Amino acid sequence: MAKKNDFTKRANELLTARLDPVKRLGELLDAKAEKEAELKSLDSDIEKAAQSCIEAGWKPAELTDLGVPRAALPRRQTRTAALEPRTDSKDQPSGGEGAAGGAAPDPTP
Fold first, then answer.
1. CB 103 within 8 A of CB 97
2. What is the number of domains present in the chain?
3. Tens of pLDDT, residues 21-41
4. pTM here?
5. Deepest in the core among 10, 17, 32, 50, taking most CB within 10 A?
């Protein structure tokens, strides 16, 4: 008959054998996350440096000809028309009048 201590020792050996690969996997996943964060930071720094080059007079096409990846270049920002600032309804005149201060026009002819 097996002793209790032998049973516990064998169970611990089995658990250790299963736990070691999981520990290694966790270490590798942590290392990957650190490297991905480092790469993200480097990408941001590269974009800022490329923007500095453009502000210094370099054209994006010239930078790509030099070997700068297009992904590192800042994207063109679309220009939108300036919108009138919105006002709260409490700033509008009361009494059911339109925004111009008069009655709303009748939509029927």
1. yes
2. 1
3. 999 999 999 999 999 999 999
4. 0.51
5. 50
